[in-house]
Amino acid sequence: MGISVKNLVKSFGTHTVIHSISFDVADGEFVTLLGPSGCGKTTTLRCIAGLDTPSTGTIAINGETVSDPANNLFVPPHERDLGMVFQSYAVWPHLTVAENVAFPLTVKGDRDVAAGVAWALDIVGMSKLAQRRPSELSGGQQQRVALARAIAARPQLLLFDEPLSNLDARLRDRTRLEISRIQRELKVPALYVTHDQTEALSMSDRVIVMEAGRIVQEGDPRELYQKPVNRFVADFIGGANFLHVQRVGRQWQLENGSPLAVDPTTDRDDGRSKIALLRPEAIRLDEPSVPTPTGQNRLTGRVVGGMYLGPHVEYIVEVGADRLRAYSRSALSPGSPAILTFDACDCRLVDDTPLTEARSHHA
Ligand SMILES: Nc1ncnc2c1ncn2[C@@H]1O[C@H](COP(=O)(O)OP(=O)(O)OP(=O)(O)O)[C@@H](O)[C@H]1O
Ligand SMILES: [Mg+2]
Prior knowledge:
- This protein is α+β, with helices and mostly antiparallel strands.
- The chain has two domains: 3-226, Rossmann fold (3-Layer(aba) Sandwich), CATH 3.40.50.300; 231-362, CATH 2.40.50.140.
- It has nine helices and 22 strands.
- Helix 2 crosses helix 3, helix 2 runs parallel beside helix 4 (139-152) and helix 3 (113-123) packs across helix 4.
- The longest helix has 18 residues, at 169-186.
- The chain starts with a strand and ends with a helix.
- The protein binds adenosine-5'-triphosphate (ATP) and magnesium ion.
């Protein structure tokens, strides 16, 4: 049950944008496709919705194959029983809010369209604007109409393409919780597309990271944040510092020769070039005069700049040729020396794979 995508390839003319990806979304699971602009998130979603035809590969929804070009099988979108929120909302301008939301209910032959519309509009907080037309709404309000329309007919599957991009920060937080709640209430699989790591980490049971039409890594949010496989994933999810390292004998060293103790579970000699990942929150940053705790790593750096963020100051510190981000509650002035301490287990070696190598490695 759920969604099953196998070896999906999508080309536009001679240009292949999805390179044989496979993944599943279990029944009731909330899965996010995360990746930079142009990596193929919308295309994948459109193939699942039936709005694009895959070049090769199969897609099944709740056990039924809906797309299999090799066998000339293609189930049209309106027979796939899914609700989709588009990146561009795509609400119909000539219909009122209520009429937009009523549409999927009418198509499905629902007996009480009015009740369905009221339910969906209430969930997104748009009941009072039911009689307006989209041209009389803000972008965020149109986005909420699109959300209401997607859930109104209580479909078997929910697809979201950056549904919060036009909401302000507070409304986005609230709607994020709403979407999670709606999905759990409907108990249907959901596939959510975003390039916003906060959305991906906070809403998902599982996150699939894509790069240039391929899946780089998938896992639950904690696993992706704590154990990224390479520099791309580490950089894309959360604040990331990278230290250039080299192996000298049995030891890892920074470029200036300082020894660096790393998480031993990541210290594999697999022939691939490595870089050390250190999250900003893992660093303790002090003035040299302050007695520092005995961490396994102790580096001396120089403060380059700082940004006051309220709870703490985010500093940029130069260590050798690398610039690191670290947080501190003390006031450190630019140019002054600083001591960085961190545990070896917080310093992970990850593949420093250039894009082309990452592509062939994960093909
Ligand atoms: N109809 C089309 N014809 C030709 N190329 C297309 C078409 N639709 C998408 N592409 C290309 O496919 C690639 C993936 O596009 P897609 O819209 O899936 O990216 P995305 O991950 O959703 O990006 P964004 O975060 O910017 O929305 C891009 O290089 C895009 O230019
Ligand atoms: Mg897109």
